[in-house]
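Lab notes, practical 5.
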Amino acid sequence: MTGSVDETAETAEAAETAEAAEAPEADEAAQWWATAVSHVEPGSIELRERPIQQLIGSASLVDVIWLLLRGGTPSARESALLEAALVAGVDHGPQAPSIAAARMAATCGIGLNNAMATGINMLGDSHGGAGQQCVEMLTDVRARHATGLDWDTAAQEVMADWQSRSRYLPGFGHRFHPVDPRRDPLLGLVRDAVADGVVAGDHLEAALAVESVLRRRRAGARPVPMNIDGATAVIYAELGFPAPLARGLFVLSRSVGVLAHAWEESGQGRRNKGPVPRGVVPARLPPVQGA
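Output from the prediction step:
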């Protein structure tokens, strides 16, 4: 019996030693994936330390987006302002590259998620990135104004910097709309929020100063008013979102339109949809020089 007891003690001791040896590895793994965004255990899901069951039915999707990105809860007015920006950017028709790509992808025998990914992956610096760039530009104008410059001068200096690198000013002008129909409703909401003390209004002033300078420079020519990227950039910046998140939020918004178009296209029975209808011969292209 004594031997049996000793063997049991040795087995227990060996198990404790093995457990102690594994503990540092377990801690290291836990730290490797440590995050403040969410915590999941059997029977428990927390988002920013908020149990999911407390959010379901009481928090809107926009509130949860804010919670996950910012770690706090927006006021009702902040939530409404963010929602307006997200609603404004959901779609811009099948001629938008991201939408066109998703629709073509949906006819190629891939899943709906793959069609969505195709469209979303088209959102880069030239198509989808102007909001982020505009937040950066308006932040520069705001910073120069804070040094004592008036808004007009601050805008001119920053615009000169941007236009030394690119012919385009992000957030202003539109290839299709003389005046973007989304501009005025969004800026009206921002003005109301400024009047009620919900947001400060500095980025709005910066954007309006840039628009004013452009209007004077282009007197007699086609105006270059603020577009959807500029108006939503004002909202994201006024709400305190860093510039890279302006792009992320636009992608999140446009994903709704990408999904809707991909789903519609998938039900129309086409196979391998191309950029022009079957039977339409594209115009003959001139020969490539040096080829």
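Observations recorded by the TA: The mean pLDDT is 89. The CA atoms of residues 90 and 256 lie 6 Å apart.
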